[in-house]
Ribosomal RNA small subunit methyltransferase G (Hyunsoonleella jejuensis), 209 residues
Amino acid sequence: MELILKYFPNLSEEQISRFQLLERLYQDWNLKINVVSRKDIDELYLRHVLHSLAIAKIISFKDDTQIMDVGTGGGFPGIPLAIMFPNCNFHLVDSIAKKLKVVNEVTEGLGLTNVRTTHKRVEEINETYDFIISRAVAVMPTFVHWTKGKIAKKQNNDLKNGILYLKGGDLSEELKNYTTTTIYNLSDFYTEAFFETKKLVHLPQKFTK
Ligand SMILES: C[S@@+](CC[C@H](N)C(=O)[O-])C[C@H]1O[C@@H](n2cnc3c(N)ncnc32)[C@H](O)[C@@H]1O
């Protein structure tokens, strides 16, 4: 938890208690339904929470921003961001029901009212969002194809509506067709070795049509 406060020192009491509660909730639920690897549970705050919150290092979502987390798995990056932005709406989607069971239990345990979940493939979702967030789900061309037409035209935030994708490694080949993409190195935000090769990609709306 100190790790979170190191990079996000201005959290409210409610946010701090929710972030603290996360560890126990994931430990408990992970014993029943394994959605996070053992090693990752031991380093939940580093590998999952802080990693998810990298998105909050480049954007402070305005109130009422609509966000979909595609392939949320156990709730990342959606859950930490829903704690961070309690006045934004998060739609967490995954094609595997048992993962969403954990997400629903954690959401309830935290008392979050800004999270809903849907058990579907993202291709079957017919809504629009200001931002589509994701981590480790598909290569970018596939992801762009799946999420086509799901970004709202109206802009409410300083950053252009679009995809915010957490990725690792060399992205030059995968992103060569998306020329106005911005790639953020997470090592610019965080000093831990885990983030050395990690990136956050922002693909603005016009490339997601
Ligand atoms: C490697 S896991 C990543 C989970 C989570 N985002 C994280 O970073 O911890 C990929 C997840 O994407 C989901 N997924 C893959 N293709 C999908 C699709 N077309 N629609 C919805 N979910 C999908 C899988 O069920 C799985 O839970």
